[in-house]
Amino acid sequence: MKKIVLAFGTRPEATKMAPVYTALLAQHGLTPLILSTGQQRQQLDGALAAFGLTPDADLNVMTERQTLADLTGKIVPQAGKKLRELGADMVLVHGDTSTTFCVALSAFYEGVPVGHVEAGLRSSNMQEPFPEEANRRLTGVLSTLDFSPTGGAANNLRREGKAEAGLFVTGQTAVDAVRIIAGRAALRAGWQARLDAGQQLVTITMHRRENLPVMPELARALAEVARAHPELHFVYPVHLNPAVQEAVRPALGGLSNVELTDPLDYQDMAPLMAASVLLATDSGGLQEEGAALGVPVAVLRNVTERPEGLAAGVLKLAGNDGAQVKQTLLELLGSPGTLARMRAARNPYGDGQAAGRIAQAVAWHFGLAERPENWSE
Q1: Active-site entry in 13, 45, 96, 265
Q2: Residue 96: in which H helix or E strand, if any?
Q3: Which of 13, 240, 285, 300 is the most exposed, fewest CB within 10 Å of its CB?
């Protein structure tokens, strides 16, 4: 049996890798193991619990307000030691977090092949998102197998000279995950009561590092939007980062139609997104999850590495200038026809079968299965 270590440390990674773990477990000849770095401890544990998963090893590296350099200096040596102890035959990392790059580097040092799930996303701006754009590019240099969610992402890798033999277009595992949870988890009773009374929900998330300098301005813009729409109920799970808390709560904390919550477990977040009339977010994964659920997404960034959603019409780029964000959100919320068209847009990110393709590709690498067919958008 080949031991396949899935390494991750944040909630989005856990939710997107959970279906991969399940698919590997069902694949003949493979044994999946989970290595957690604990990069987002509280949110990570909730995501794992939603899928009934427990780490086989945990680095527990996170401390408050540590620098990226500090985090890197912890993960690289500790991950290498754990990979040796686990007897890893391959490591799968996801996306673009510090965990992703650091564990890929550790695996490279240990001579263990790396499979990169959600490979090939590019914003073409090393500062937005920061440090994620660098993390995913550096991981791509180290990976043996690249699992791209879309044909466009795969083409990015081809332009960078990646070998065709290791390239797979699988669809986005976020589609697999959000459909699983949204289909079985109930909306919180208080939110359901608002829907039953005819009130619509808007979900907000905002935490990106590059947005921190302008986050107080963005929070004030969101407050003005909320005041302009007292008939709507805005739900904002606020990231635990103290800098985010300090930027957001003064502007939004006193509004009666804005609900500031602690970060939500995935079994609460998925049905909340599905029930919302609009998502306003600077997250990457929520762009895909919104598309998979048929929910319009206003992207609080200047660029997105997920252009397929823009082309399909389910995403709207709002930027991170307060005045522009306010105008974009007011236009969207004031135009039911526009929101309806966005809801009707096709999902360009997958068919819910991405994890199975990834597991088959890993098995193919070890001579245990046929090469999977690429997903066609």
Answers
A1: 96
A2: none
A3: 240
Q: Which of 137, 158, 209, 249 is catalytic?
A: 209
Same domain, 272 and 299: yes
Q: Both 159 and 289 in a single domain?
A: no
CA pair distance 122, 76, nearest whole angstrom:
24
Of 179, 207, 208, 357, the active-site residue reads 207
Closest Cα partner for 16 from 39, 41, 44, 57? Answer: 44
Q: Is 263 exposed, middle or buried (0-12, 13-18, 19+ CB in 10 A)?
A: middle
The H or E element spanning position 272 is: helix 266-275
Query: Is 65 one of the annotated active-site residues of the chain?
Result: no
Active site residue 137: no
Q: Is 132 an active-site residue? A: yes
Please check whether residues 252 and 335 belong to one and the same domain: yes
Q: Are residues 192 and 328 in the same domain?
A: yes
Question: Residue 229 belongs to what domain range?
Answer: 188-344
pLDDT tens per residue across span 291-343: 999 999 999 999 999 999 999 999 999 999 999 999 999 999 999 999 999 99
DSSP secondary structure letter of residue 56: S
Task: Please tell me which residue in 128, 132, 217, 308 is annotated as part of the active site.
Answer: 132
CB 79 within 8 A of CB 106: yes
Read off the pTM. 0.90
The answer to whether residue 96 is catalytic is: yes
In contact, 210 and 234? CB cutoff 8 Å = no
Cα gap 332→329, rounded to integer Å: 5
What Cα–Cα distance (Å) separates residue 139 from each residue in 21, 143, 192, 349? 20, 6, 42, 21
Average pLDDT, the chain: 94
User: Above 70 in pLDDT, residue 191?
Assistant: yes
Catalytic position from the list 116, 194, 233, 239:
239
Q: Quick check: is 118 catalytic? A: yes
pLDDT of residue 265: 87
Pairing state of beta strands 167-169 and 201-205?
A: unpaired
Closest listed residue to residue 4, CA positions, set 98, 97, 89:
89
Domain of 224, CATH number, reads 3.40.50.2000
Q: Which of 13, 45, 118, 146 is catalytic?
A: 118
What span, in angstroms and rounded, lies between the C-alpha atoms of 140 and 146?
8
